Amino acid sequence: MSFGARRILLIGAVMICVVGVLYELQQQRADTEYVTAVARRVVRDAGAVTARERVLALRAYLRDHVTFHGAPDDARPFFRASASDTLESGLGWCGESARAFVDMAWAVGVPAQRVNFYGRAQHVVAEARIEDGEIVVVDATEPPQVADLERLDVVINRPEYEDYSTLNLRRLHLGWITRVRLEIGWLSYLAENPHAIKACLWLFALLALLGATASRSLLRTMLLRRGWVHISSLPKAPGESNERSERASTSSPGERTSVANDVMR
Fold first, then answer.
1. What is the pLDDT of residue 98?
2. Beta-strand relationship, 112-119 and 161-165
3. What average pLDDT does the chain have?
């Protein structure tokens, strides 16, 4: 492939990555604005002041407005529905309800993250930090498996649960890692926003592409300085490919003579 064609492909790939990042960020911005507006309205209407009151208000709202009856199962996207999708449709399983709660809680200043329970019962809830640093389990589904605000170490002692993790390790095929609770802070909010995750993936692809290109140029420059690669001074015949010129520049002296003879014929 000629240098010009490679350059066009590189520019095209970079533009696709940039458009992907900008599109997903715009979608994430719209989602955040919608979820924040709903969460603040719920808290305001409930007159919730303390962190515990805000948690209870958000939990009650989700239990009343989101149901798993009629929610899609087999057709669920890989990154699952966003919190705004769940709030708008009113449909979602325990994972979608937990995601909506986490995003809404962060929107009103309450740190939260999801917890996956495994055992005879598979369930997804959230946990939130309330007054005096207390962390409680919040089940936003209806009907709930955890009706009240309880500590994680109390809930895990129930006979239906055997294991838990902050991240869905079973889905990542890491089920052999047991009882993992991570304090990941704002990353928990990032993990609950599909558009933010996709934007990060597009950005990673962009950086990887630019990094590979820069590394190739740096390696070529280093080899030229060390004299391991030489730029050919032979005149380039019309229509001659770059690969032939590069073969002439990187070959041994005897091979370069042969190539020169081919060119001069």
1. 95
2. antiparallel
3. 83
Q: Which of 10, 4, 5 is nearest to 216 (CA)?
A: 10
Amino acid, res. 150: E
Q: Which residue has the tokens 């590979």?
A: 212
Phi-psi category of residue 51: left, alpha or beta, with phi > 0 → left and psi -120 to 50 → alpha: alpha
CA distances from 98 to 7, 206, 238 (A): 46, 32, 65
CA distances from 30 to 23, 100, 191, 256 (A): 11, 15, 17, 61
The pTM of this model reads 0.75
Residue corresponding to tokens 């399983």: 93
Q: What is the 3-state secondary structure (H, E, C) of 170-194?
A: CCCCCCCCCCECCCCCHHHHHHCCH
Q: What are the residue ranges spanned by the domains of the chain?
A: 11-199, 230-265
When mean pLDDT is compared across 57-71, 118-132, 134-148, 246-260, the lowest value belongs to 246-260
Within 8 A by CB and 6+ apart from 106, the residues are 112, 189
If one looks up domain 11-199 in CATH, what number appears? 3.10.620.30
DSSP label at residue 120: S
